Amino acid sequence: MPRAGFDLQFMINVPFMTVALGGVVPYSYEKYVNCGDCEGTGEKDDTTCETCQGKRWVVSPVTLDVKIPPGVADQYTLCIHKEGGEGLNGAPPGDLFLKVQTQPHPPFKRVKENILVEAPIPASLAENGGPLKVQTLNSTKTIEVEEGTISGEEYRIPGEGAAIMWGKKRGDLIIKFIIEDE
Questions:
Q1: Which strand (E) or helix (H) includes residue 27?
Q2: Alpha-carbon distance 92 to 82, whole Å?
Q3: Which of 7, 64, 68, 81 is most buried, by the most CB atoms less than 10 A from its CB?
Q4: pLDDT tens sequence across 99-154
Q5: Is the whole-model pTM more than 0.85?
């Protein structure tokens, strides 16, 4: 009777921007596959197969392009069907489970679908107001700092945060002003 393949579980390190906006990440791992010399029987020419030593499987390196959904949560487990270890006697392969581990990306910090960033500004800009260029996840925008801005005050840019999981909407980019002495 065929025996189903082995499920595999690993961690996958994903860049901050890819977790926030989605994308593809290459992932390399090793898995058991049926021995090609004995076709998974463990024997070749009525003797024990030398390649797999009768175990019927060999370890094979694999590289996959893993699709990361936009807005996926840190520590979320992705399931990639039939990419685990091969089954025995023609059974289907197991599944590959990958737990997403988000790589940090200073200066950005993610809180659910919102992205937080601190923006140091000179005291003169805080006092008088004026334009300020800020980096978003995928562009640079110019915002208007209000006259009389105080340290810790926040400015919100709607729709410039992380994708809301599995959707096309995005959270906000929240800029926290930090006033520097000149």
A1: strand 23-34
A2: 7
A3: 68
A4: 999 999 989 999 999 999 999 999 999 999 999 999 999 899 999 999 999 999 99
A5: no
